[in-house]
Write a structure and sequence with these properties.
Layout (H helix, E strand, L loop, with lengths): L3 H21 L24 E5 L2 E5 L8 E7 L10 E4 L3 E4 L8 E8 L11 E3 L15 E4 L5 E4 L9 E3 L13 E4 L3 E3 L1
Antiparallel strand pairs: 1-2, 2-5, 3-4, 3-6, 6-7, 8-9, 9-12, 10-11
Length: 190
């Protein structure tokens, strides 16, 4: 028969092991999922900005703690699409390409991790714009002497030009700035 003192020691040791097992095991809120110690998806991204360019929009946002990747939803309507247009973005910026210039787009960003996807950011908008290029130089410039020391100058209109500037000098060196600006028709008197 086992002595009472040995039985108490075994019971004490068993209680200690059971206590250790129950208090040291990981719980769902322990940081095992890699998302900041939570069993929830990350928070929605904030600080979203949209920058327009030729046929594209660049979207940037503040990094989200616990996010493994980000998703972009965009649409020409104010209703968020049912699934993301771009997934798996690993840095807090991306460029949406192949867009139609002059069309207003609505954009939402979400953050994702192994638990799931965040709610969408607040909606932002952007409109891609056609790249502006300088017009060609005028051709067909014709100076015609006018009265009292004047000179009438005309040229062929340039497609895309909204105004013209005239540079003139008594030498063959072009001045550093135009002498006349804001001319809106292809003729003037100097």
């Amino acid at each position: 028969m086992i002595k009472k003192s040995v039985l108490l020691k075994i019971l004490f040791l068993f209680s200690f092991v059971l206590f250790f097992i129950l208090t040291c095991r990981p719980y769902p809120d322990d940081n095992l999922s890699g998302n900041g110690g939570s069993n929830n998806p990350p928070e929605a991204p904030t600080g979203v900005t949209v920058t327009a360019a030729e046929s594209q929009l660049t979207v940037s946002w503040s990094a989200v703690t616990g996010a493994a990747s980000y998703n972009i939803y965009y649409s020409a309507s104010s209703t968020i699409p049912g699934s993301p247009n771009i997934t798996g973005i690993t840095v807090p910026t991306t460029t949406i390409t192949g867009l139609t210039n002059g069309t207003l787009y609505y954009i939402w960003v979400t953050a994702s991790n192994s638990i799931g996807e965040s709610s969408p950011s607040s909606v932002k908008t952007g409109t891609p714009v056609e790249a502006l290029t300088a017009p060609e130089a005028p051709i067909g410039v014709v100076p015609i002497p006018g009265g009292r020391g004047e000179l009438n100058v005309s040229w062929l209109a340039v497609t895309g030009a909204t105004s013209y500037s005239i540079y003139y000098n008594t030498s063959s060196t072009i001045p550093g700035s135009p002498n006349i600006t804001g001319i809106t028709v292809p003729t003037t008197t100097i």
